[in-house]
Amino acid sequence: EGSFGSVYKVKRKNSAREIIRALKEISKEKMCLNEENSEEIRNEISVLKSLDHPNIMKIYEFYEDKENMYLITEFCGGDAANIQDKYGVLPEFLVKYIMYQVFMAVAFFHANKIVHTDIKRENIAFFYRDEKKDKKEVDDFLKKLFEDKDIIEELTDASGLENLSEEASKVVKELSNFDVKNV
């Protein structure tokens, strides 16, 4: 739930393999949309649909009716705001990992003469590459990541990956399954 609508996890029907997406339902009334700014949003969505970058959330489809706009997008497993609210201050190595991917997306936007005007922690989403992992497995990994102070310190102080302990190396390997998506 958000101030302008809701997001649902959806599954594509009649597909040979299970395809999970997010359905964003946006209330035109709550956004106070008239025809002029509705057209601006349609144009923005059209531009975003044409972009293809690993750190920008993919928009697959767009529909609308009299009351709502509907976006079918990649399904992401949470955002930086949720993680920070749940675990507190993010460790430095994680912030570096996140910011690198955010900057890559912003550079791509700028190279395409697009300005992202709403960069905030709620719009930095996490995408887990292995779709077989369920939410509990991801939550378990994050909990371990944030609760093991020795690993946090080791990863924050590390100048490279070659001298990490076996446990820290496992964390880096698991973390590499996460992509950051700008929403």
Termini separation comes to: 16 Å
The helix count comes to 6
Give the biggest beta sheet: 4 strands, antiparallel
Q: Shape, please? A: globular
Query: Which strands sit side by side, in order, in the main sheet?
Result: 1-2-4-3
What would you call the structural class? alpha+beta
Which segments are poorly predicted (pLDDT under 50) over 5 or more consecutive residues?
none
The total strand number stands at 6
Write a structural description.
The protein is of the alpha+beta class and 183 residues long. The chain contains six helices and six strands; from the N terminus they run E-E-H-E-E-H-H-E-H-H-H-E. It has helices at 35-50, 80-87, 92-111, 135-147, 149-157, 166-175; strands at residues 5-11, 20-27, 59-64, 68-73, 124-128, 178-182. Helix 5 packs across helix 6. The longest helix is centred in the middle third of the chain and has 20 residues, at 92-111. The two termini are 16 Å apart.
